[in-house]
UniProtKB/TrEMBL annotation:
Keywords: Transferase. Residues 1-160 form the N-acetyltransferase domain. GO terms for molecular function: acyltransferase activity, transferring groups other than amino-acyl groups. It holds the Pfam family Acetyltransf_1. It comes from the Bacteria. PROSITE patterns: GNAT (PS51186). This is Putative acetyl transferase.
Amino acid sequence: MIREMTRSDFESFWPTFSAVIQAQETYAFDADMTLEQAYHLWCELPLKTYVWEEQGVILGSYYLKANAMGPSRHICNCGYMVAEAARGRGIARALCEHSQRVAVERGFKAMQFNSVVSTNTQAVQLWKALGFNIIGTIPDAYQHGQLGYVDCYIMYKWLDT
């Protein structure tokens, strides 16, 4: 069910991606981003990008990249999206678990999420359940589409056992 994303996969996933960024509830991406800009950001800049596919339908995706360079290149960063109709089925959990395995295989020692919107309570709870800790709060870091300015969390997990 989880495999590397192709250009065609991203084009199929674009309606989900576009809906997520237009809602302005979870990602700090421009709501008017084009498919080309989004593909570059999600698939070309990261080290790897994966999809969750069921019966030819892309229901979720994540990317994996280094969080920084040089002496901090051992920490990776990921972003995850799941189609609204597929939420609550464990896809985000499976994608995050997969990303941690891939991160370790690629030599990363830790994973950091730089900006988890505090009002995204399902994600915060899931990441905590998967062993991530909130290591910082950025006050009023995100202008939520419905709620105005809300905090963001920096979440972190050491992967190297």
